[in-house]
Request: fold
Amino acid sequence: MRITGDDETVRFEGSLDVRTAADARRRLHAAVDDGRGDLVLDLSRLAAWDTTGLGVIMGVHRRAGREGRRLVLRAVPPQLQRILIATRLHRILSFEDDLDALAV
Reply:
């Protein structure tokens, strides 16, 4: 996994899974703690994620809320959209694109 960006926009490339979760969590927590406003997580180059990766996203979502920030997912790949819709997490998380329209 490759993680780039700053405290306002973080980009993932590769897989967010049990092998990469610790690094991703550490980087995202630092971005939440050090930044202001929305934290945008660009997933356009994310190839896959597993339940551990989903847990990282949810943990960062909660941490951002405690810090008065909002985690916003950008360019969620279709296969990941389906997982978010199936788990109903699309109703909790924030997106640049409207996933509710896809949930019909």
